[in-house]
Each structure stands twice: as structure tokens, then as C-alpha cells.
Amino acid sequence: MNQFFRLGLHEVAQRLRKGKLKPSVYIKSLLDRINELEGSVQAWQWLDRGRAMAIAKKADTSATALRAAHPLYGIPIGVKDNIYTAGIPTEMGCCLYQNYVPEVSADIVTRIEKSGAFVFGKTVTTEAAFMVPSKTRNPWNFKHTPGGSSSGSAAAVAAGFVPGAIGTQTNGSVIRPAAYCGIVGYKMTRGLIGVDGIMPFSPMFDQPGVFARSVADSALLASSFAGPRSGISPNAAPLKNAPRLAAVRSPSWYLAEREARTQFEVDISRLRSAGASIDVIELPGEFDRAHKVHRTIMLYEAARVSRAIRDEFRGYFSDFLIHALEEGDRVTETQFRDAVKKKNALQNSFASFMDRGYSAVVTPPATGEAPNSLHVTGDPSFCSIWTLIGAPAITIPTGLGPKGLPLGLQLISAVDEDNYLLATAAWCERHSPFKGLSS
Fold first, then answer.
1. Of 152, 278, 344, 421, which residue is most buried, by most CB within 10 angstroms?
2. Catalytic, out of 173, 202, 223, 438
3. Is residue 149 flagged as an active site residue?
């Protein structure tokens, strides 16, 4: 088996565009890798091997000018199964939608295809992109969860099945699975990219995100569907000067396991040794209520988005999901509006915090290593605040815990400072010794 599946997104894109690697040869490498490991990882909800190879062989004969005009020419991308794909099943992790095939793709899928990439397959999502796991396993250890809800996207990239994938985050559904699977997960500023064609859960928080094996690859993929107006650069060069960082334990610190706390201290020490200025500091006290505010808004919206379909098809959904939505039913309009006001106040407070001159906040991306269970997706608490306030966030892998599973570092910047976040993360990544499964 050739080893082209190990190539990162930037490198394979360059080789394909310059004609130094045939798309069919590359796709065969990915399919061989999938044939080797998919039975254990189970990252794909839908994958048509024949279709993928046919697209690749057609691309083999494309003109040089066509290749040069498309930054992701011939690149296969994994797409989370709550994102509409025309002519390809989109089942949302729900038995109710089994074999549902949309007629129109989500806007982000259309944009990716215009950049020259194609939908390689649909990656597994948890039920309705919430918290009930599906079949996917962590490629580092098949007895452990890959996280959720973008389970398949994270696992597919980590296992070497695909160089990049897209997912969604409403709480911690990009950052957490990326951290558990030892890859880079990036969610951009809320509202920077539209969500047309993505199954809604909580419209105030739903947003797309990307998975790749490096910060630079994440930027390239995000820029391909963000569009020129977003301002996201396809090239995430590291900062020229060492950053000033705020090391924040956050109100969820009490949930952090020993290995997460130790890794956080190791990461701070390593970055300081590399020249970073790091203040260990806490967020203002009002952030202690952020998790409750987020949950109130999220479940209120989810309950109302789903009410009609629940009334008609209640038996098609898990008890866990139904109970969460019923919690949302009990949130009053007054409570919801109060939560939105608190959210807005926290956004302003964080903006003032970042005005102190920090390049980014750094904090753990998860409570620790991926849990040793396939019946849970892990705790999203270390992501909730940043999703609530709509700030851009990224996680980079930085080490392994005592069980041999990845640990990482999450970075958050001010709203709309996505390029600065990516450059800061690339600087930190340069000083991380971590090597992934597909390295």
C-alpha cells in the first residue's frame, strides 16, 4: 500500500494541481487505508468507493489550466451527515431520515466543490448532532469514544481516511472530537459562514467547522468555503513574534482530569520557553454563569425547531434527546430573553478582556483523554463559553496522556480575529512535538 494517505491537505493539493500526483493514485491510497481500518473505526455513514474512483479518474485527464484555477483541485473531503449533499444521503444520525436524499447541497458544500474538491463521503454524526453516540470509534483506541457530535469527521481525518473534513458545532462538537482524536479542529467566528443547508438545532449557536492535521491545512479548508468576504486567509503562517497569551483555567477547571491539568502546565512551560509571554489569569466572575446561559438558549431553540416533528414522530428519537428537548420546552420566553441579554453582556465582557493586548486565550479543549466508553461522547464544558460568545476557537494536539490518547490545547481569540487566531495557533503548533497517527 502506498503512503499518500499520510499527506496533509496543503501538500496533496499542491501535488495534484501541479500534476505530480494523479487523483486516482491518491484516492486509491485513501481507499486502501479505509479498507484496512474502517471496519474498526466506522467513520463513514455513506461512502461509494466506485463513485470516488470514477471522479478521480475523470480528474486525471483535466487540463493543466483547470487544475491551476482550483485551489482544492481533486481533493476529497469528508462531510458530516447533518449537512445536505445533493444526490447523496443525509440522514442526520436519525432513523427517521434513513435514506433521505436532498435535492440541493448546503451552501458550504457548493463552495467547496467550486474550489475543486468533492464530497468523498458522509461522516457519522451523533443523533441530530446532539449527544447520543453512533457507531464511530476513536482511531487511537477502538474502545474509546471519538467525541461528538462530529464523530466521523474527526475520526476519518485522524485515521488517514481523508485529508480534511467539515463538521458543525453547537456546543463542543468540533473542538472536543478533534482533541480526542489528536488533530486540529477549528470553528470560526459565529456568523462568518452561513449555515444554509445544515440541519438546525440551535440557530443562535450552530456553525460549521473544519478538521485537518495542521493549522495551515485547517485554514486552507476553511477559506475554501468561507468565501472572499470572510477574510479567512488560505495561508496560516505562524506569527513572526512570540504571542502574548492568557492562560485561563475557566469555570470548568474542577472538571479537568489530572492528565489534562498536567498537560496544560506542560504546554504553558513549553510555550514560555519558546518565547511566549503568558499570564495565568481568570475570566471575570460573570463567566461562571456562562454554561447555564448557553444551555438555556440552546435547548429553548432546539425544542422549538423540533416541536412539529416531535409531535408527529416522537418514537423515532432516543429518550435522551426527547428529555433534553422537553427541558427546552420548559424554558419560558422571558427566561430565554434574559439568557440572550446575559450572552450579549458576556460577549462585551470578553471583548474588553481581549483589549488588554492578548493574542489569544489558552485553555484545555476537553476534560482529559477520550473516555473509555462508546456510550458517551465526553463533556463539552471547556467549549461552551466560546460557543456562547461566538468567538473563534481552535484546538491543536500537544501530547499523549497516560492511556496513550491525545491531549491538546485550545486557543480562542477575539470575535472576527480569525486570521490572528490561526497565526497564533500556527506559532504554538510549531513548538509542539506531537505526531499524529497518520504522520
1. 152
2. 173
3. yes
Is 80 annotated as catalytic? yes
Which position among 134, 149, 359, 413 bears the catalytic label?
A: 149
The structure's pTM equals: 0.97
SS (H, E, C) the chain: CCCHHHCCHHHHHHHHHCCCCCHHHHHHHHHHHHHHHHHHHCCEEECCHHHHHHHHHHHHCCCHHHHHCCCCCCCEEEEECCECECCECCCCCCHHHCCCCCCCCCHHHHHHHHCCCEEEEEECCCHHHCCCCCCCCECCECCCCCCCCCHHHHHHHHHCCCCCEEEEECCCCCHHHHHHHCCEEEECCCCCCCCCCECCCCCCCCEEEEEECCHHHHHHHHHHHHCHHHCCCCCCCCCCCCCEEEECCCCCHHHCCHHHHHHHHHHHHHHHHCCCEEEECCCCHHHHHHHHHHHHHHHHHHHHHHHHHHHHHHHHCCHHHHHHHHHHHCCCHHHHHHHHHHHHHHHHHHHHHHCCCCCEEEECCCCCCCCCCCCCCCCCHHHHHHHHHCCCEEEEEEEECCCCCEEEEEEECCCCCHHHHHHHHHHHHHCCCCCCCCC
- What parts of the chain have a pLDDT lower than 50? none
Active site residue 403: no
Mind listing the pLDDT tens digit for each residue in 34-45?
Answer: 999 999 999 999
The CATH code of domain 4-230 reads 3.90.1300.10
Domain boundaries, the chain: 4-230
